[in-house]
């Protein structure tokens, strides 16, 4: 299959909403599914937030194109309805293995026989829940980077169960939604980018837990020393506290749980989960530019 018209995205959070718009802006009809109407009610404001970034970052952007993309998005809290006509299903729900198994069992029972089943899991091993779908030969990973309209990578990773043609078709779908494709032929948790990035982020978090320096000092040192455009705590804000929290709590990262607890108490419980909320380790203006470090995370005020 080479014409993927109908796309369903499960989860409408920070990255899920970006995936929805990425597909809709590329001309796909997209169904956005979430478990409650409260989450879906946040989407119109999210579209306007993303619009500003598209306008700034994409050459040739027009509001007419964007409005047409929004018109191609429908929303639902009915999972069977969401996947009933899907050519592709993309899951972007929290990093909890049992939750993913439960959702994929329901999707596998309701989706058409031709549907490609894709997970955007950040750190779990897709083969650990492929069987829950009932169709492991059609199941694999398509991993998106945050701010996908700009960092438009599509890591396509097969499991040992994935049919070769489905692996190839997924790469074609990724190109159709304007991703640069990076095929990964052997399954590994974290793909390429997260296998490199997670240890780096956690090293920065350990410096903070040890009270070695404030986040903005750690970031600035990294950027000056390596010539990097962003430091690790800026990247935490882009990734989002929820994603980092679930990676820590769901993986072999016991030493990082005190940091996860702080992410929850200082951030998630207060609706301050990073760039998507306008405040994380830093406070941001409407254009997503840093205004100042968030005082809640400052130890010394350097």
Automatic annotation (TrEMBL):
Domain 3-hydroxyacyl-CoA dehydrogenase NAD binding: 6-181
Biological process annotations from GO: fatty acid beta-oxidation
The protein's annotated pathway: Lipid metabolism; butanoate metabolism; Lipid metabolism; fatty acid beta-oxidation
Any Pfam family the entry gives: 3HCDH_N
Record SUPFAM superfamilies: 6-phosphogluconate dehydrogenase C-terminal domain-like (SSF48179), NAD(P)-binding Rossmann-fold domains (SSF51735)
Tagged with keyword Lipid metabolism: yes
GO molecular function: (3S)-3-hydroxyacyl-CoA dehydrogenase (NAD+) activity; NAD+ binding
Top-level division of the source organism's lineage: Bacteria
Secretion signal span: none
Catalytic reaction equation(s): a (3S)-3-hydroxyacyl-CoA + NAD(+) = a 3-oxoacyl-CoA + NADH + H(+)
Site keyed Important for catalytic activity: positions: 143
Protein name according to UniProt: 3-hydroxybutyryl-CoA dehydrogenase
Species, as recorded: Corynebacterium doosanense CAU 212 = DSM 45436
